[in-house]
Design goal:
By secondary structure, the chain is of the alpha+beta class. The protein has five helices and eight strands. 31% of the residues lie in helices and 24% in strands. The longest helix has 15 residues, at 114-128. The N and C termini lie far apart (70 Å).
Length: 181
């Protein structure tokens, strides 16, 4: 008897069980940040940005300024108590100019379109409130982020093709990009 008929016979008699496939992880819920998210926001920020992560007191103040139902601090909540990403936009007076102060996706959830989802939502919120221009900085070697931003319409801000030497201090170069909404 070959393996195939034996397998079918055992299957028919309910002796051979097939492993139940694991359910696909559900997509994280994109929602405004809540005060209860602060510890998890800090964990995620430190995990991704390490030594340049926001200190807890600053995350708290940014939350107080930019969270809420109509705010521009959005998180990706996977439903099991862990955040998988966030985006933070800070808008100047009269809502004309805004800066993306942070875009963060957990390492194990990258390359699934989550960064794009966060950016599309925050840009739409900024459009609705009358923002005219959005700027951001990105590490010049972060090709994946630069490609994402370019695909959303961001372009290097003149002069010098957006390159700003020592932007965050000695040796901390950044590319400044801009999107006109």
């Amino acid at each position: 008897m070959t393996a195939e008929p034996l397998e079918r016979a055992l299957d028919h008699e309910k002796r051979l069980t097939r492993p139940t496939p694991l359910p696909e992880p559900r997509p994280p819920l994109l929602r405004p940040a809540r005060e209860s998210d602060l510890p998890e926001l800090q964990r995620l920020d430190e995990e991704v940005f390490r030594e340049v992560a926001y200190p807890a007191f600053l995350l708290r103040q940014l939350h107080d300024l930019y969270a809420g139902p109509a705010g521009h601090l959005l998180v990706l909540d996977d439903g099991d108590g862990r955040l998988r990403g966030y985006v933070l936009a800070a808008t100047a007076a009269f809502h004309r100019d805004s800066w993306i102060l942070g875009l963060c996706v957990a390492e194990d959830r990258r390359r699934h379109g989550l960064g794009r989802e966060l950016m599309v939502e925050v840009l739409e919120r900024l459009r609705r409130c009358g923002t005219e221009r959005v700027r951001l900085t990105v590490e010049p070697a972060n090709d994946a982020a630069i490609l994402l931003y370019r695909s959303l319409g961001f372009r290097p801000e003149p002069p010098d093709g957006g390159m700003r030497r020592d932007y965050f201090g000695p040796g901390e170069d950044r590319e400044v990009m801009c999107l006109v909404l």
